[in-house]
Design goal:
By secondary structure, the chain is mainly α. Helix content is 75%, strand content 0%.
């Protein structure tokens, strides 16, 4: 319900009253669980993003990264992506929104990718000496950059190219 509201009226125009009305609960109930409308939005986005780009655990780190990144690209290329960009923009001037975004959306997504990388190391596919945070930034930063600047497409071909480039540096030599 919150996601529909976000897509319909936008992040700034959405109110806690509207969230409460659409969800059939009181405004007090909303504030019992979330500090503000942005926290509600972040949770809604995490839920949708996990559905769009879950942890596939295919048995291959390359395929897992490719699947997750393709899901992120698909998510960002639709109407939800524009709302996510608004949320990122709002976080630049509001430390509460920034904290909510970082702790409740970005951190769980980074943990998902760390799990993929850890599995790849454990299976002997990936080097163990690589800085995982740097890998996550290199692979998953470009979609956010493309989303907020609009300079290039958010598509599967790009997702595949990013994963392939990263794998050249990550793969264990035989």
């Amino acid at each position: 319900m919150t996601s529909e509201l976000l897509r319909g009226v936008g992040l700034r125009a959405m109110t806690t009253d509207e969230i409460a009305t659409r969800s059939g609960v009181s405004k007090a109930t909303i504030y019992k669980w979330w500090p503000n409308k942005y926290a509600v939005a972040v949770e809604a986005f995490l839920s949708e993003m996990m559905a769009e780009a879950p942890d596939p655990d295919t048995g291959s780190a390359r395929e897992d990264l490719r699947t997750v990144l393709r899901g992120v690209m698909h998510y960002f290329s639709g109407p939800r992506g524009r709302v996510y960009a608004q949320l990122v923009g709002e976080s630049q001037s509001d430390p509460i929104v920034q904290r909510e975004l970082r702790e409740h959306l970005v951190a769980p997504r980074r943990e998902l990718v760390r799990a993929i990388l850890d599995r790849g190391v454990a299976r002997g596919e990936l080097r163990a000496d690589v800085d995982q945070d740097a890998v996550i930034d290199m692979v998953f930063g470009p979609p956010v950059y493309r989303l907020v600047t609009g300079h290039a497409p958010l598509d599967e071909a790009t997702a595949d190219a990013l994963v392939d480039a990263a794998m050249r540096g990550l793969a264990r030599g035989e």
